[in-house]
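The record is given unchanged here:
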Amino acid sequence: MIENNNTSASQLMERTTFSVLLVVCLCHFLNDTMQSMLPAIYPILKQEFALTFVQVGVITLVLNFTSSIVQPIVGLYADGHHHYWQLSVGMFFTLTGIFLLSMASGYAMILTAITFFGCGTAIFHPQASQVAQVASGGRKGLAQSIFQVGGNAGYAVGPLLAAAIILPQGLRAIHWLGVIAVAAAVILYYVGRWYVRTLKTYKQQVHVRWTTVRQYSPGRIRFFVLVLFVLMFSKNFYTSSMTSYYTFFLIDKFHVSISQSQVCLFIFLAAQAVGTVVGGMLGDKYGRKYVIWFSILGAAPFTMALPYVPQFWMVVALTIVIGLIIASAFASILVFATDLMPAHTAMVAGLFYGLSFGLGGLGSAIFGWVAEYTSVEYVFKISTVLPLLGICAIFLPKMQKQAN
């Protein structure tokens, strides 16, 4: 019946698309809520286990490194194999990490728990991003931004959850997050079933898409993807530094409490969530290259001013602006890359979610070493040049909009 009525089929597909996107967004929210809890409790871990800044940086490194190694491999596998259970398995890895961390008795056990967290997110992101592509209806920037805003919102809520639950009750209270992991696993089971079922009859319908103005060789395509990867790396390097050391920066410079610093981290991450959605919509309408230029280079003046602002409220205001601008590039960079390599959407997602975040974690570890021998404020001063890597966008190809 649906096949004989094109209008009804189109309307049904539209409703199904947005319902799936919102569910995947919710799962991304739950996943990254648990992930973002980790940077928020760094001050607690540092105090309870007498950690150095170097050890704090290594925690971030392990989290991102496990994601970066596993995630592209998962993405490569997901491009050729589609299993309904894959997303749920990722949540069970995260669940294991939660209980190990809640029972941690030393630094080695903390790193083991973080490894499970990293593997969990590595399994989740490539296929979830692939689901968003299938459900996009051709509006890939919007779909990826809806998917990503769930993650950004989760990262924003995580510090508040840590402040409300873990800070007053202690590290063992983390085990309550297991409820979130189990709920997400159940939801993702049904998302996986929809995804596998849809792939059997799915025929991609692209209403409006952006393409290069001319054909390029495979070597040039790989070069363009490398440029996009560098741009994503510059964004992730800076934001990883912010999420890892922003609370320490505020505590050291303005003598605020841990709870106040976590609220400020929430504000920065919430601004990123808003910027992600706006950037995805603008990329679909005006072109991804313009959004990339504005997002990464546009943030540079504000990041360079941040360490020198003397007033606390001015620092918070600047971080809102930085979060809005720098996050707007995410969907455009990722969709730009998947448009260049449409047969490898999961692998590209794995590289950009995984490897670039992993390198950002490496940068965070390096900055931890720098902070140990200088100061957190000095780390913020030298990290301000990272958005200037956005000048690499000059090498990206020109794009044109095609209507089908």
